[in-house]
Design goal:
Layout: H1 2-17, E1 20-29, H2 34-46, E2 51-56, E3 60-62, E4 73-82, H3 86-99, E5 114-120, E6 125-126, E7 131-132, H4 141-151, E8 155-156, E9 161-162, H5 163-169
Antiparallel strand pairs: 1-4, 1-5, 2-4, 3-4, 6-7, 8-9
Helix pairs in contact: 4-5
Length: 171
Protein backbone atom coordinates (compact mmCIF):
# COMPACT_ATOMS: atom_id res chain seq x y z
CA UNK A 1 0.00 0.00 0.00
CA UNK A 2 2.78 2.38 0.81
CA UNK A 3 4.38 1.82 -2.62
CA UNK A 4 1.13 2.72 -4.39
CA UNK A 5 0.82 5.93 -2.40
CA UNK A 6 4.40 6.91 -3.21
CA UNK A 7 3.97 6.09 -6.89
CA UNK A 8 0.81 8.17 -7.12
CA UNK A 9 2.52 11.13 -5.47
CA UNK A 10 5.54 10.84 -7.76
CA UNK A 11 3.37 10.62 -10.89
CA UNK A 12 1.39 13.74 -9.85
CA UNK A 13 4.65 15.66 -9.49
CA UNK A 14 5.88 14.44 -12.86
CA UNK A 15 2.65 15.53 -14.55
CA UNK A 16 2.78 18.94 -12.92
CA UNK A 17 6.29 19.60 -14.24
CA UNK A 18 5.78 18.08 -17.71
CA UNK A 19 5.65 20.40 -20.70
CA UNK A 20 4.55 19.43 -24.19
CA UNK A 21 6.51 21.16 -26.92
CA UNK A 22 5.65 21.31 -30.60
CA UNK A 23 2.18 22.65 -29.96
CA UNK A 24 0.97 24.74 -32.91
CA UNK A 25 -1.97 27.14 -32.89
CA UNK A 26 -3.47 28.86 -35.96
CA UNK A 27 -5.00 32.34 -35.68
CA UNK A 28 -7.49 33.92 -38.03
CA UNK A 29 -9.63 37.05 -38.12
CA UNK A 30 -11.73 38.73 -40.81
CA UNK A 31 -14.10 40.87 -38.80
CA UNK A 32 -13.48 44.19 -37.04
CA UNK A 33 -9.93 45.22 -36.17
CA UNK A 34 -8.34 42.04 -37.54
CA UNK A 35 -4.72 42.74 -36.59
CA UNK A 36 -5.74 43.77 -33.07
CA UNK A 37 -7.66 40.51 -32.56
CA UNK A 38 -4.56 38.55 -33.58
CA UNK A 39 -2.34 40.69 -31.34
CA UNK A 40 -4.66 40.31 -28.34
CA UNK A 41 -4.84 36.54 -28.83
CA UNK A 42 -1.04 36.23 -28.89
CA UNK A 43 -0.79 38.45 -25.80
CA UNK A 44 -3.43 36.42 -23.98
CA UNK A 45 -1.60 33.19 -24.74
CA UNK A 46 1.83 34.58 -23.91
CA UNK A 47 0.61 35.86 -20.51
CA UNK A 48 -0.75 32.46 -19.52
CA UNK A 49 1.68 30.89 -16.99
CA UNK A 50 0.96 27.40 -18.37
CA UNK A 51 2.07 28.36 -21.89
CA UNK A 52 5.43 29.53 -23.23
CA UNK A 53 5.52 31.20 -26.64
CA UNK A 54 8.38 29.78 -28.73
CA UNK A 55 7.88 31.08 -32.30
CA UNK A 56 5.52 33.34 -34.21
CA UNK A 57 4.97 33.37 -37.96
CA UNK A 58 4.42 36.42 -40.10
CA UNK A 59 0.82 37.54 -40.60
CA UNK A 60 -0.69 36.68 -43.99
CA UNK A 61 -3.78 38.09 -45.68
CA UNK A 62 -5.75 35.29 -47.30
CA UNK A 63 -9.00 34.68 -49.11
CA UNK A 64 -11.77 33.03 -47.07
CA UNK A 65 -12.22 29.26 -47.07
CA UNK A 66 -15.70 27.82 -47.52
CA UNK A 67 -18.10 30.77 -47.74
CA UNK A 68 -16.08 33.10 -49.98
CA UNK A 69 -18.54 36.04 -49.84
CA UNK A 70 -16.86 37.72 -46.89
CA UNK A 71 -13.78 39.87 -46.16
CA UNK A 72 -10.25 38.46 -46.40
CA UNK A 73 -8.66 36.93 -43.32
CA UNK A 74 -5.47 37.73 -41.52
CA UNK A 75 -3.79 34.46 -40.51
CA UNK A 76 -0.75 33.42 -38.48
CA UNK A 77 0.59 30.40 -36.60
CA UNK A 78 2.49 30.19 -33.33
CA UNK A 79 4.51 27.44 -31.70
CA UNK A 80 4.24 27.04 -27.92
CA UNK A 81 5.04 24.63 -25.15
CA UNK A 82 2.46 24.01 -22.47
CA UNK A 83 1.73 22.16 -19.27
CA UNK A 84 -1.94 21.87 -20.27
CA UNK A 85 -3.35 18.50 -21.22
CA UNK A 86 -4.68 18.42 -24.78
CA UNK A 87 -8.34 18.82 -23.79
CA UNK A 88 -7.46 21.60 -21.33
CA UNK A 89 -5.62 23.42 -24.13
CA UNK A 90 -8.63 23.18 -26.43
CA UNK A 91 -10.93 24.50 -23.70
CA UNK A 92 -8.51 27.33 -22.94
CA UNK A 93 -8.39 28.39 -26.61
CA UNK A 94 -12.19 28.33 -26.97
CA UNK A 95 -12.59 30.38 -23.77
CA UNK A 96 -9.98 32.87 -24.99
CA UNK A 97 -11.93 33.32 -28.25
CA UNK A 98 -15.04 34.26 -26.25
CA UNK A 99 -13.02 36.51 -23.92
CA UNK A 100 -11.64 38.36 -26.97
CA UNK A 101 -15.13 38.94 -28.35
CA UNK A 102 -15.89 36.08 -30.70
CA UNK A 103 -19.60 35.79 -31.44
CA UNK A 104 -21.37 32.66 -32.70
CA UNK A 105 -21.44 32.56 -36.50
CA UNK A 106 -22.20 30.24 -39.39
CA UNK A 107 -19.63 27.56 -40.19
CA UNK A 108 -16.84 29.16 -42.22
CA UNK A 109 -18.54 32.53 -41.78
CA UNK A 110 -16.88 35.81 -40.76
CA UNK A 111 -15.41 35.83 -37.26
CA UNK A 112 -13.60 38.19 -34.95
CA UNK A 113 -11.03 35.59 -33.89
CA UNK A 114 -10.52 31.92 -34.60
CA UNK A 115 -7.96 29.88 -32.65
CA UNK A 116 -7.35 26.34 -33.86
CA UNK A 117 -5.11 23.76 -32.24
CA UNK A 118 -3.24 22.34 -35.23
CA UNK A 119 -0.87 19.92 -33.50
CA UNK A 120 -0.26 18.81 -29.94
CA UNK A 121 3.21 17.33 -30.48
CA UNK A 122 2.71 13.94 -32.15
CA UNK A 123 -0.68 13.18 -30.58
CA UNK A 124 -3.50 11.91 -32.77
CA UNK A 125 -6.81 12.53 -30.99
CA UNK A 126 -10.46 12.76 -31.97
CA UNK A 127 -13.69 13.31 -30.09
CA UNK A 128 -17.00 15.00 -30.91
CA UNK A 129 -15.53 18.49 -30.31
CA UNK A 130 -12.14 18.32 -31.99
CA UNK A 131 -9.63 16.48 -34.15
CA UNK A 132 -5.88 16.76 -33.57
CA UNK A 133 -4.06 17.14 -35.86
CA UNK A 134 -6.55 19.69 -37.09
CA UNK A 135 -8.60 18.37 -39.97
CA UNK A 136 -7.61 19.47 -43.47
CA UNK A 137 -4.30 21.19 -42.72
CA UNK A 138 -2.88 19.85 -45.99
CA UNK A 139 -5.66 21.59 -47.97
CA UNK A 140 -5.39 25.02 -46.38
CA UNK A 141 -2.66 27.34 -47.61
CA UNK A 142 -3.66 29.91 -44.98
CA UNK A 143 -2.41 27.39 -42.39
CA UNK A 144 0.40 25.70 -44.33
CA UNK A 145 2.21 28.89 -45.36
CA UNK A 146 2.71 30.33 -41.85
CA UNK A 147 3.26 26.84 -40.41
CA UNK A 148 5.97 26.12 -42.98
CA UNK A 149 7.63 29.44 -42.10
CA UNK A 150 8.17 28.43 -38.46
CA UNK A 151 8.16 24.61 -38.58
CA UNK A 152 9.13 23.31 -42.02
CA UNK A 153 10.76 20.21 -40.49
CA UNK A 154 7.85 19.35 -38.17
CA UNK A 155 6.55 15.86 -38.94
CA UNK A 156 2.77 15.58 -39.43
CA UNK A 157 1.93 12.54 -37.29
CA UNK A 158 -1.01 11.42 -39.42
CA UNK A 159 0.29 12.21 -42.93
CA UNK A 160 3.77 10.91 -42.01
CA UNK A 161 5.39 13.84 -43.84
CA UNK A 162 7.26 17.00 -42.96
CA UNK A 163 5.31 20.24 -43.36
CA UNK A 164 7.70 21.39 -46.11
CA UNK A 165 6.98 18.20 -48.06
CA UNK A 166 3.22 18.67 -47.71
CA UNK A 167 3.70 22.22 -49.06
CA UNK A 168 5.74 20.89 -51.99
CA UNK A 169 3.02 18.35 -52.78
CA UNK A 170 0.47 21.20 -53.02
CA UNK A 171 2.34 23.19 -55.66
Amino acid sequence: MRKNTRRYYKSKLTKAKHYVSNVFIAFGSNKGDRINYLREAVLGISHNPKITLLKTSSVYETKPFGDVNQPNFLNAVIKVKTSYLLTEMIDYLKNLEVELGRKESAKWGPREIDLDLLFFHDVIFENVKVKVPHYGIQDRDFVLTPLNEIAADFFHPKKKKKIQDICSDNI
